[in-house]
Amino acid sequence: MESAILKTENLSAFFGSQCVIKSVNLEFPKNNVTAIMGPSGCGKTTLIRCMNRMHELVPGASTSGKILLNDEDLNAINPILVRRKVGMVFQRPNPFPTMSIYDNVIAGYKLNGIRKKRAEFDRIVEESLKKAALWDEVKNTLHRKGTFLSGGQQQRLCIARALAMNPEAILLDEPTSALDPKATSLIEELIGELEKSITIIIVTHNTAQAARISEYTAFMYLGEMVEFGNTEKLFTVPKHKKTEEYLTGKFG
Amino acid sequence: MVDNGVSFRIFKDNLFKWSLVLVSFLATVPLFLILFYVAKNGISSFSWTFITHLPKPPGEAGGGILNGIVGTLLLIGWSSLLSIPLGITLGLYLSEFREGFFSYWVRLCIDVLQGTPSVVIGIVAYAWIVITMGGFSLFSGGVALSLIMVPMIVKATEETLKLIPSALKEASLALGVSYSKTIFKVIIPSGLSGIVTGILLGVARVAGETAPLLFTAFGNPFVNWNPLKPVSALPILIFNYASSPFPEWHQLAWGASLFLVTIVLLLNAVSRVVIRKWKVQF
Amino acid sequence: MKSEPTFKGILYLSAASTIFLLAGLFFTLLRHSLPSLKAFGFGMFYRSVWNPVSGDFGAFPFIVGTLFTAFLALAFCTPFALAISLLLGEYWRGTTWSGILQTLIEVPAGIPSVIYGFWGLFLVVPLIRSLESKLHVAPYGVGIFTASVILSIMIIPYAASLMIETIKLVPYDLKEAAYSLGATRVEVIRNVVLPYARSGVFAGILLALGRALGETMAVTMVIGNSNFIPKSIFAPANTMASIIANEFTEASDPLHLSSLIEVGVLLFFLTMVINMIGKAIIRRTVSGAYG
Questions:
Q1: What string of pLDDT tens digits covers the 282 residues of chain B?
Q2: Does A101 reside within a domain?
Q3: Which of B270, C3, C86, C238 is the most buried (most CB within 10 A)?
Q4: Helix, strand, or coil here: C277?
Q5: Which residues, at least 6 apart from B181, have a Cβ–Cβ distance to it below 8 Å?
């Protein structure tokens, strides 16, 4: 296994007194796609929301245990910086409706109050949109509102927005669950392109998707990490009975 | 390179939050000042005589605000009489016929009426009643206040009745109950808390209205029950005595203010309780 | 089933009566302002002499007085209303503190206008008077500035209640997206929440303006009642509402009364237009037609 960029050590997460993730130990290898799958309510979304400290924004939410980003304790880093290093794309495409496509891409800079020269921003916008495979479709409408785009385009815009900050990893929370099959396969292709240069952690309840795009897969059930390993191995010879049951559609 | 600005940004974030807290609580200071002033200056005039006697001429201490209390009660009575049936019927109409050309115009008229400054309402009541009947009167004051109350009751009724699931109405109709009976026995009882709240808030509002009464009820140093004669009201009394040069009258005005504020705030508090306690769950 | 048509008939009748009521209201106001319209035409709106003794009526000073007072009051009230609505709609949403603050904000809306005027006369007027002597302007105490201060206190609840609602309507996933890019809360508010809620905030300010324009008693008691064009924001003046409240019952000359009613007509249309725009914006915002 390559060196791990993100690591969890006995990570537990709570909403109030309710424990939704139970003592999870995981290592996410660098520049690879890791899929987290499991039935709904198993804590997979909460897990990745811990990875960029979005979890704690929910009133009453807390965590215990450790998350390491490049061997540095995440809790010791300011959440603002964490989120800039670990980007996130959400279930439903959520471009800012008050901003143009251009402004959406550089929203991270604007929000963080980072000023750059116009040409520099132009370059970042073009680069990020190209990485998100959206450039050709929007290069002539950069200054229109992002809400005019189709759902799949909006989601790629959100990916471009996350990429523009040059994060070390991005977390994708079921990014294709709101999209049609065509838009979904475009995004999956894109993920395959991106993993060359960036670590991707994707949450999905679609086992076929996990099998298609990831090198490593983690299977979660009722807040516990049941199995983690090479995707091919996990899908062909699952070690745990639960994993096998899930993969064969016995539940979930 | 990134770390430099971060602590400053977090500082700004905290600064912003605490200035919001500061500014918000600053905005509540006038309320406390008003309540404090009214209570402090008004409490000393409070006595049994104060609410059972008429005001005394300037220069004489003591006296009461009986004419104002009776006048306000009569005005509330008249305006309720005129506005509650119409208000509820209209609210019912708007909740039953939500779409359509006619409903659109009715709703628009209610909106316009609600936004009309109370002083303009006073002019209208003056032109309609005072000129026609040849003098200021309790009745014209009641009409003016009812024009203010109607939109409030309509809105409250419409909003509550709209929330009642149509399944409830259909269930009643399916039992063979007539439309009007369904309305009176099923729909209105289910929305009663909202309607009562609207009426209470309407009463609280008109109890404190002054401007439209200046040219309708006009004011009266004596107790009057005759709907065709001028009548006093607490807010008129406060306005007249507050703008007078006599300290004894200022004292009366403070007492009347305390009385009025207490009533109005009590009505508001009761309406809150009503909406919470009586609310029918669907 | 015989009663059915009657019942629906009553509903229709009451609905029709509203339209007649409002039509009658329009008609009455216009008919009674006819004498002054005939005498002065539209001169009422730009002539600046108001003299009941000589029978000369131009309402320009009151239009100026109204706009000055109302906009100054808006300027005072907006920062407070905005701060309150951000706390209640964003920071403290659903907490105990928000319940307390919400109540403290709503109570002032129930206090009668005349009480504000009375209180203003005895507390705010002396305060402003000492402020004025420090600033070396004529220390009237009463005047536009005093009226605006009191007016702003009165309209905060109206502006804030709508702003709170619209700020609550900002979708959580947008704020979440901004947080995930590393923004602090204040940055999220400035770049996401406020731009998204701006039309609702504007509508809140408009509705508060509608209130401020028509507010009568409190203003009448502290504005100083001068029939001349105010020379500064500290000068005594009259608003359209306050001139009506002051002179209506004393107007024995029919032309005087008619002129006052014409001022009322102007006030009526002004508040109506502002309320309509405000409500139209609210409808558009709430129906979610965005982008």
A1: 445 678 899 999 999 999 999 999 999 999 999 999 999 999 988 888 888 889 888 777 778 899 999 999 999 999 999 999 999 999 999 998 888 889 999 999 999 999 999 999 999 999 999 999 999 999 999 999 999 999 999 999 999 999 888 888 888 888 888 888 888 888 888 889 999 999 999 999 999 999 999 999 999 999 999 999 999 999 999 999 999 998 889 999 999 999 999 999 999 999 989 888 877 777
A2: no
A3: C238
A4: helix
A5: B172
> Which residue in chain C has the smallest CA separation from A79?
C182
Cβ-Cβ pairs closer than 8 A, A with B, add up to 14
Q: Are strands C50-51 and C56-57 parallel, antiparallel or unpaired?
A: antiparallel
Q: What share of chain A is helix, strand, coil (3-state, %, to 5)?
A: 40, 30, 35
Shortest CA distance from A148: residue in chain C: C291
CATH for A237: 3.40.50.300
Burial class for C202, CB neighbours closer than 10 Å (0-12, 13-18, 19+): middle
Does the distance separating the beta carbons of B5 and A113 come in below 8 Å? yes
Strands of the sheet with A61-69, listed across from one edge: A18-29, A4-15, A61-69, A72-73
Tell me which residue of B151, B149, B145, B112 sits closest to B129, measured CA to CA. Answer: B145
CB B194 within 8 A of CB B133: no
Q: Does C272 touch chain B (CB under 8 A)?
A: yes
| CB-nearest partner of B28 from C104, C111, C221 | C104
Q: Strand pairing of A86-89 and A72-73?
A: unpaired
- Chains contacting C (3 or more CB pairs within 8 Å): A, B
Give domain status of residue A13, yes or no: yes
Strand blocks (E) in chain A:
4-15, 18-29, 33-37, 61-69, 72-73, 86-89, 169-173, 199-204, 216-221, 224-230
Q: What is the 3-state secondary structure (H, E, C) of C77-101?
A: HHHHHHHHHHHHHHHCCCCHHHHHH
C-alpha to C-alpha distance for B185 and C291, rounded to whole angstroms: 45
A-chain residues near B10 (CB < 8 A)? 78, 80
* Residue matched to tokens 């600033």: C135
Which token pair is C232? 């500064």
Nearest Cα residue to C159 out of C240, C220, C215, C105: C105
Residue C133: alpha-carbon gap to chain centroid: 29
ipTM of the complex: 0.93
Nearest neighbour of C178 by CB, restricted to A59, A97, A111: A111
**Backbone angle region of B219, left / alpha / beta, with phi > 0 → left and psi within -120 to 50 → alpha:** left
With CB atoms and an 8 Å threshold, state whether A112 touches C179: no
Residues 6+ positions from C224 with CB-CB distance below 8 Å: C140, C142, C143, C146, C235, C236, C237
Examine residue A198 and state whether it is found in any structural domain, yes or no.
yes
Percent composition of chain B: helix, strand, coil (DSSP 3-state, to 5) = 75, 0, 20
Tell me if chain A has a CB within 8 Å of the CB of C28.
Answer: no
CB contact under 8 A, C181 and A97: no
Instruction: Report whether B246 contacts B55 (CB < 8 A).
Output: no
Reduced to 3 states (helix: H, G, I; strand: E, B; else coil), residue B189 is: helix
CB contact under 8 A, C180 and A90: yes
Contact predicate B31/B261, CB 8 Å: no
Assigned domain for A26 exists: yes
Domain containing residue A178: 4-93+168-247
Q: Are C163 and C197 in contact (CB under 8 A)?
A: yes
How far is the alpha carbon of A106 from chain B, nearest alpha carbon, in Å? 16
Give dist(CA C146, CA C75) in Å, integer. 14
CATH domain C21-286 topology = MetI-like fold (1.10.3720)
Number of domains into which chain A is organized: 1
Chain A residues whose CB is inside 8 A of the C194 CB are none
Assess C95–B contact: CB distance below 8 Å, yes or no.
no
Neighbouring-strand partners of residue A29: A4
